[in-house]
Description:
Low-confidence stretches: none
Helix content: 40-55%
Strand content: 15-25%
CATH class: Alpha Beta
Radius of gyration: 18 Å
CATH topology: TIM Barrel
Oligomer: single chain
Number of strands: 12
Structural class: alpha/beta
Number of domains: 1
Amino acid sequence: MNASQYPVHGAGLGLRRTLMGPLTDQPPSQVEFYEVAPENWMGVGGSQGKAFRAFTERYPFLCHGLSLSIGSPAPLDEAFLHRLKPFLREHNIRTYSEHLSYCSDDGHLYDLMPIPFTEEAVHYVAQRIRRVQDILEQPIAMENVSYYTAPGKEMDEIEFLKAVLDEADCQLLLDVNNIYVNSVNHQYDAIDFLHALPAKRISYIHVAGHYNEAEDLIVDTHGADVIDPVWELLNKTYARFGVVPTLLERDFNIPPLAELLTEVDNIVSIQSKHQQDHDTIAQQA
Length: 285
């Protein structure tokens, strides 16, 4: 994908309310974009709403949803989408993404449940994604998720993911940490998975930390620092696809802003190295 096709550039940070004060007092130059869950801000007014609007007027923003539940057996929540659409417009949100999973049926399940890797599920999910894109009148990105069991599996994760992206004609939010987590939990080669991804579908990247429950079980928590093998996988991602905008996720155990920014700096450093390598090759061509 050409860099001009990405919705944002550089390194980003998930905006959490606890960070808004420090970010306002000392805006970090290395953070070029932010991301929020729209469910946390839709309908918020007063001082919090004004503070959020001040951020979206100043910086590029992405939205990463929590409740679309694209793989749910329950009907698609179109009422939610009709509330979401003006929110995305009002705040000039560059891209809306969601999880390739589901989190509801008759009620909210409070977790991301795995969609069966089947041809029937591909058609079902792709049709729902197309409907979302029709309502929002824009492409959306679906995130490859971490999962801990694969009920009714008829195809590999990578085959399922590619089939959904192709049939829905949507973009990919590439979560590098989730590739690492799943490669350990389900014993596949992370590099092979990475190389099989369609470059033209990638919109942007997530990196995050996780929790090692056991030697062969990792839980995706977004509550710890990014570990070296995930940084190395990000490095290999850039080697494969070029420099893709990349966002640091941190949802729990949020450290002081200065500590978070060291990880953003790491993203910037890896991006800079690959950009320099690319420029050198271009000059020699």
